Every structure is written in structure tokens, then in C-alpha cells.
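# step 3/5: fold
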Amino acid sequence: MALHTGKPTPAPEDTGTKEPPDTGTGQRHRLTALQGLAALSLDAMASVAYGPESIVLVLAAAGAYGMGFTLPVTLAIGALLAVLVASYRQVIAAFPDGGGSYAVAKRHLGRRTGLVAAGSLILDYVLNVAVSVTAGVAALTSAFPQLHGERTWICLGVLVVVTAVNLRGVVDSAKAFLLPTALFVGSILTMITVGLFRDAPASTASADGHASALGEGATAVGALLLLKAFAAGCSALTGVEAVANAVPSFRAPAARRAQRTEVALGALLGVMLVGLSVLIGRFHLQPVEGVTVLAQLADASFGHNAAFYVVQFATVVLLALAANTSFGGLPVLMSLLARDNHLPHLFALKADRQVHRHGVLALAVVSAVLLVVSGGDTNTLVPLFAIGVFVGFTICQVGMVRHWYGERGKGRRAKAVLNGLGALFTGVAAVVVTATKFTEGAWLIVLALPLLVLGFEKVHRAYGLIGERLELGRVPEPPKRAHSQVVVPVSGLSKLTCEALTAARSLGDEVVAITVTHPAPEDRRATEALRRDWELWNPGVELVELGSPTRALGRPVSGYVRELADTHPASQITVLIPETEPAHLWQRLLQNQRGSVVAHAVRRDTDAVICRLRFRITDDER
């Protein structure tokens, strides 16, 4: 099958929630709202394990007085979460083909701004995989220190498992991760409920003997510190956009199911974030070195018993599997970029079970490289995390403001104000996080994002040039018949040679057989034998000998084809390469690959048509 290299026909943009009915068999390989929550929310759900802790660690610099601002900062993040959920519900309705920030920016802010949004989301998704896997493995090696030296291999093993599940389809991944998600959410909500009924911590065993990270002597908290705490805590909002990016993965009506999933995700995430912050203040928790805030809260609510370890186990599993959010959202985004000619078209292809396998595999490979380079160390990757998603959030919110000003209807101004506030908050968070983490590795994102956008532009220009050469969009001239010459490379006489010449005479007006000869004595004897046998056989086709002073095979053939094209410029030249197709896959190792060598040389050096004749070798049945 020929590879289509021209510009694909773009799908019409939708402006509402109405979708055509889809009654095909592919529906069973798409997500329900509950399955979407399991497949696309793991990143956001897992962020409650480090979001509140990020806030506490920043405010701890101001001592106990600063810790008192944990709940107000969390409420501000919760308010931003509500804005984002409301905004992305509107994004899903306006862009049911998926794409999230990229789709919004492309329509309302221009193509290049859309590419910046897409690039930021790609960086965030890739880093999410690496951070999630390393965080989960870090929690595991904390419980089993003897595994610390093998953490890189464990990270790669987890990545292989998540990739394999996603290659089977988004529905299979949702089913596989539904139980861990339910266990984590259930344990956190239970912990919050139990903790609210306690007047004092049930246990502090997990923090005993660990040095406190609390600052001393502060009596005031500055605006900059609050901004840093807000920006750090906003890491809990990563993953909120994944549902809007993957709308086509849902069952019909896809937009409505995706909206329900978005609201459920926002409600669960908001309740957990605020609930954990209330417990932090209720138990007067202090951050300590070597023990997570979530572990201390579980200890304080349940006591140091089996329930405590259930929370830890659920956290480890969900952190490791939170990478699944990227596998659900990024391949869909890459398919849209490929459809718009900003990525290779193979990323737009879907395999069985509605899987964008090339996107899944590309994400896995890049993530594996990050894991190996970082050595499975979470601290190496965390400074780079969340910057990309804040950029995407901000661009999306600004685009939605433009969207509302172009709409007519009630409430459009209020919605525009809501999105404007969201853009302001996420923009501030993006600037603060980038500035505070710049020397810790954020400069890599600042450098990588424009390089990624330049890469998109280069691919787009390449497809544009191909489209111009192919004259896409124009009515071509009527086809006409040209004189046809077929060249058949041969190395000996056999049934394969006979089949090849028969096929060649059926295809072309003129057929010539060629053989490459070498000056070595044994080669000369083989050439003389072939010439003698050919004259005795007399197939009615001329045999041309191409001398080669070296052992080269492809270049003499391609050189002859070029000479033939120069001599007969009006002729259509076809090179028919006869090859055997063995009965078993392992038998391909027994072949000399001469056909592949010739095909590569002809394709590289000439414009001739290449035809590969397969002669099947079957097992004898007796």
C-alpha cells in the first residue's frame, strides 16, 4: 500500500455539542464516563499526594505562622480548579473533536499560538509519565530500601506495563486501572472523614525521630511567599485538561460523557485537596524530612495500623499508574497535530481498539529516555513539571475569552470574565513557577518549548512542499499511456526467474533482464554458466551483464536504470525484483536480502517504479 504523503482532508470544526450518531463496532472500544474517570484522571488524582505537600513546604519557611495560610492558599487553588473545570466543560462543548488548549488557541488565537499550547501540553504529558513513575517507585523504595539501587530498572518495568496495557486500547486501560483509582479515592475520602471526627492525632509514629522542616521566628507572611505557595500547590491541577484533549475517546454522545467526567474529576479533586488542608490545620501538622505529608495525615487519622498501610499502598500504586493520563490524552493530541500537518501523518493512524499506537509508542520511548537520563530520581524531574500545563491553561483561558466575545447569548460576558480570571491566575502561576525553578532545570522547558514549535513548523513546511509538488487540490491532467520498459534483476535460472519474466512481459512493452558480474574467477565462471544456460533456455528476453569491479550490487543496477531513463526519457521504467516468501517467519533469516539492497538503491538514485514479486514457498502436504 502506498504511503499518503499529501495534506489530509481536515475534519470540519464543530461549534456545538451536536455529534453525528456513531453506531459502529468501535463504540465498545470507547470510554464511558466512569471509565474515562479511571483512564484520564489518574494524574490529577495522584496530585493530592504532592500538591498539599508542595504548599506546606513553601509555607514552612515562615514557621508555624506561615502554616496557618495552608487552607486559604488551598481554597484559592480550589477556586481556580472550579474555574478550570467550568472552562474545560465549555471547551469540550465547543471542540468535541478534542485537542483542548490546542484546538481553542488554533481557532481563536492563531496557528502559532496553538502550536505553543500543543508544545506545552506535549512537554507536560511526557514529564508527567516520568514524574509519576519515578514518584511511585520512590515511594516503593522508601518502604523497601534494598531496592533503591534498582530504581531505574523498576521505573522502566512499570513503564512497560502501562504501555502494554494502553496498546490494548483505552477501554482496557480504564478497566485495569479502575480498581486502583477507586481504592485510592476511597481511602483518601475515608481518611478525611475519620480525621474530621478526631480532636487530636491518633498517632505520630511515622514522624517520630525525623527532623522538622519548619522555619523559626517568622511573624509575617509576604505576598511573594503566598504566590510561591499558590504556584507550587497548582501542581495539583495537572491533568485537569486531559479529558478535554481526549473527547473522541468517549462513547457517543462523547461531549456529554466527557463533560460529566470533567465535573466528577473536579469535584473529587477539590474535595480531597480542601479536606487534606483542613486536616493539616486540625492536627497542626509540621513537615518533616523523609516522611510525606499524606503519610502523616494517614497516621493521624487512622493510627499506625493496617489502614495506614492501605493508604500508603494505594498511593504508591496510583502514583506509578498516573502516567496513564498521558497515554490517554497525548496520542489524541498528536493525532490532531498530524491531521493539521504539524507531525508525521502516521500519528493520525488508528489501529484496532481505537488505539493511536504510534503516539503511545513514541510517548513510551521518550519517557524511557528521560527515566534513564534522570536515573529514576524524582527530584531531577519535578522542577520541570507543571510549567507546560500552566502555559496551556493560560492560552486556553485567553482563547475562551475570545470565544465568548464572538458568541451571542445570555451570560457570555460573565463567562468571559470567569475565563479572564482563570487566565490571570494560571499566567501568574506559570511566571512564578518558571522564575523560582529556572536555575533548577526550568530553563530546559524554556528552551525546549520554542524548539518543539520550530519542529512543528518544519514538518508543516515539508508537507506544504509535498502538497505543492503533488498539486493537491487541483484537477490533474487526464492519464495517458507511455511506452513501458521493465527491468528484471536475475542471478540464476529457476522457476522464480520464469515467474518474474512472465509477470514482466505482462506489465511492459519491452523487457530486459540484467545480472551484475564481478571479476573474481569464481564469479566469472558463474557468469559464463548463466550466459550459456540463458542461450539454451532462450526466453525471448535479452540478458544484459553489468560489470562491477567491487562487490557492489545496488549501484550497478541503479546506474543502468538511470542510463535507460536518459536514453528513453518518454518511457515508464519499472524494476521488477523477484523474491521468495518463506513459509515460516524464522526462514527469512536464511535469505540473502539481495532484493532489499537493489530496491533501496533504485529508490534512492532513480525515479523508476519498483515492483517486488513475491514467490511463496509452502510446506509440502502429504
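# step 4/5: annotate
The chain has 24 helices and five strands.
# step 5/5: archive (pending)
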